[in-house]
Design brief:
about 25% helix; single chain; globular; about 230 residues; alpha/beta; Rossmann fold
Length: about 230
Amino acid sequence: MLLPGPLKNMMRGSRGGQPVGISPGPDRAVVIPRARGKETVITRPSRGLQEFFSQIRDQSGLTILDLGGASQDNVSFITNLGHRLYSEDFVQLLNEVFGDDIAAQANPGQMDYFLRQALDYPEQHFDGVLVWDVLEYLTPALLAAVVERLLRIVRPNSYMLAFFHSDDKLESVPFLAFRIQDVGALQVGQSGSRKPVQLFNNRNLERMFGKAQSAKFFLTRDRLREVVVRV
């Protein structure tokens, strides 16, 4: 959905937030004493986010896709840079289409329906994609189809930012929401946990993005692997 301006669809399950005006040091995570129900919120530096924005900082009028759902922080930050933002709540759509039936992610009909719901955009439509951590919830068949679709809907020499948990033996991972605070700082909200379908090491990720020009890795102190992909 395009925000702001005419909506592509009605907003589904958006996770909004407000800027808190805290600038963390280079290696410091700041706990925000703020009520969000059962959500725990920290502000942390992100070298991957900084790298992503460093590639587009001298440009304006770009089109960015955010797969984390509509967040007021992200909308404000991206549009204040002079870019257009489309937002899709990828995980909610995943839940709506497949529910708890992981095996259904290999059903060609349901896969096609999901792709039409989540990533129904023209080829070479976007200049960047904020993928966040959503790829960990996909089976191999659906993952391959999603990555292929992402590579088709972005323009050559565009960038994608994706997060992966670096411990590939975890039985559950935190359910996270990412809100941009600055070019190198994220507010990360955690509300419970979720069982990942797949976890990846560097070699897996290199294969996943093998058709892209490059993939640059950043390992964080909270054991997230941030990956900036140049298409």
